[in-house]
Design a protein that fits this description.
This protein has 204 residues and is mainly alpha-helical. It has one domain. The protein contains nine helices and no strands. Helix 4 packs across helix 6 and helix 6 packs antiparallel against helix 7.
């Protein structure tokens, strides 16, 4: 299938997937006692409150046009107040893990759909691509660089005296992430994602 068609489809999948990702954070936060995201109107699958013009549209389009080896994006982070969690550490882990786990579930669904429709080559290719996008989002967000979800999970495990200094790196996080993307430091994600989606979909 033509590269452009597949990438355009991938942008639509990416938009849907980052919205599910943020919705999952909002829902998990509500279960832990924090209704901040809900009160802000973010406990919804309506794309409009979630779309970030840069992360949801510009970055994916730039990666597509430059034929980058990776394809990733993000939505507007939902507002979370950990002080309202019934248990701050437990709530932080659950809420932070909810987004990547949602993408893993979507990735499994897309990949198994590709297997089920393997006789329909066009559809199976698109579903296969959906699996790649979602597993990429999941593992990318688990990288322990603030403000990604992995950094919040790691912060719970750090000694208190290190925790806040570590999280202060969030102001430089996007610069670090872009350097990591274009320098190849995240190149380990692609073979892992490829292996999982190939295995689940039956593609070789």
């Amino acid at each position: 299938m033509d590269y452009v068609y597949v990438r355009v489809w991938s942008i639509f999948v990416l938009l849907f997937s980052v919205i599910v990702h943020e919705y999952s954070h909002a829902y998990a936060a509500l279960t832990q006692g924090d209704d901040t995201a809900s009160l802000a109107g973010r406990l919804t699958l309506n794309p409009l409150p979630h779309i970030d013009p840069v992360g949801s549209l510009l970055v994916p389009l730039l990666l597509m046009l430059t034929r980058a080896r990776i394809f990733v994006g993000w939505a507007r982070p939902v507002p979370i107040n950990p002080l309202r969690f019934r248990d701050m550490d437990r709530g932080t882990v659950i809420v932070s893990a909810a987004g990547p786990l949602a993408n893993m579930f979507l990735g499994v669904g897309f990949a198994l759909g590709a297997r089920a429709l393997s006789a329909q080559e066009g559809f199976s290719v698109l579903l296969y691509e959906g699996g790649l996008v979602n597993f990429w989002l999941a593992f990318f967000n688990l990288v322990p660089v603030p403000p990604l979800d992995g950094s919040k999970i790691l912060s719970v495990l750090l000694p208190y005296r290190w925790k806040w200094s570590y999280l202060q790196w969030e102001r430089y996080g996007m610069i670090v992430i872009l350097i990591a993307i274009y320098s190849g430091l995240l190149s380990w994600i692609s073979p892992l994602v490829q292996f999982l989606v190939d295995w689940l979909s039956g593609f070789k």
